[in-house]
Amino acid sequence: MTQVGLVGVGRIGAFHAATLHALPGVEVVVADVQAGRAEALAASLGADWAPDVGALLDRRPAALVVATPTGSHAELIDRGVAAGIPVFCEKPAADTSARTLEIVNSVDKHGGRVQIGFQRRFDAGYAAARAEVGRGALGRVHTLRGQTCDPTPPPAAYIATSGGVFKDCSIHDFDAIRWVTGREVVSVFATGSARGEPFFAASGDVDTAAAVLRLDDDALATVTATRYHGAGYAVTLEVQGTHGTVGAGYDGSLPLRPVGNPPRTGVCTWPEGPPHPSFMSRFHEAYVRELQAFVDYAEGRAENPCTVADALEALYIAEACDLSRAENRPVTLAEVRR
Questions:
Q1: What pLDDT does 335 receive?
Q2: How far apart are the C-alpha atoms of 229 and 255, rounded to whole Å?
Q3: Can you give the pTM of this predicted structure?
Q4: How are beta strands 141-149 and 234-241 bridged, if at all?
Q5: Measured between alpha carbons, how far is 31 from 41 in angstroms, rounded to an integer?
Q6: pLDDT-based confidence at 189, cuts 50/70/90?
Q7: Whole-angstrom Cα distance, residue 202 to residue 190?
Q8: Residue 93 near residue 77, CB atoms below 8 Å
Q9: Best exposed site among 6, 43, 148, 312 by fewest CB in 10 Å?
Q10: How many helices (H) and strands (E) does the chain have?
Q11: CA distance 12 to 18
């Protein structure tokens, strides 16, 4: 059995704990700053728990999953790497590129193994889009369109510490665009608006955002995000090339209602519905594949599918978008890269 320690049993942590517990050959041990929450989750799963992080690390698990709030990610990654334990950490690795770069250097110094959680890399649609691009089926890729739409906003307290919509939401699109195309972003122009709850503006954030990215081969990508997509949770990526176009996320649960169907096509019944209520529903299978990939990586059976360096590149794009929105101008990645 592979013993996997998990720190943080909030919404995503509890979800990951249940996923790990269901994987064959995996024994999960959970811990949280509120020991009672860890004990309760362990009891519900029939798993084990530890009273705190120190006690969990003293058990020398074969791998460590970090699902705590962002502010503690860097410290926990450092502790895992220093102990020689492979670490999986939900994005972001840290709240700034400077701190993330420190983690990159720490991982290199200790010869550590750290996988960052960008689950879209394990979604069947995104993986198929990458394969189409990789085999040249689309010809020269010239346009990409990505979106991340939440049905309703998270609580004000979450927004205040989220890092903003580009770091919290669109960073998944940024990573996906890099991964699907194999290209790097060289410049951005971003904007946003805050027309919903006052706590967005109070936190210096926006509830709706858009960015135009220029890639290093002059392909263009648009990325949009909103916290107010009442039709349901929606995440898609469209990739256009000179020979064809593919789209990830265009399934029967995408909350997009066609209108004005021409007579020759008859009545369109798509989508079949119901829409996904949240990211955990939309990406459930991707999360399972992601954590299985981490166990394989920790056991030495696979390569790292998403490094801290990958997380740093996506964060650079998000920081460039923040600067662009703040100063209302195009920003090159060279301006924020360290």
A1: 97
A2: 9
A3: 0.95
A4: antiparallel
A5: 9
A6: very high
A7: 20
A8: yes
A9: 43
A10: 13, 13
A11: 10
The per-residue pLDDT for 267 is: 63
**25's tokens:** 């050959």
Residues 147 and 236 sit within 8 Å (Cβ to Cβ): yes
Start-end of H helices in 23-123: 35-45, 53-58, 73-82, 97-110
134 is written with which tokens?
A: 């990789």
Determine the pLDDT at residue 264. 62
Chain mean position to CA 95: 14
Joined together, the tokens standing for residue 334 give 């060279």
Q: What's the CATH number of domain 2-120+287-306, 2.40.128.270, 3.40.50.300, 3.40.720.10, 3.40.50.720?
A: 3.40.50.720
- What is the dihedral angle through the alpha carbons of 304, 84, 112, 179, rounded to the nearest 10 degrees? 30
Q: In one letter, which amino acid is 170?
A: S
CATH of 123-282+313-335, one of 3.40.50.720, 3.40.190.10, 3.30.360.10, 1.20.1250.20: 3.30.360.10
Cβ neighbours of residue 124 closer than 8 Å, sequence gap 6 or more: 285, 286
Domain regions of the chain by residue span? 2-120+287-306, 123-282+313-335
CA distances to 53, 145, 158 from 233, rounded to whole Å, are 34, 17, 18
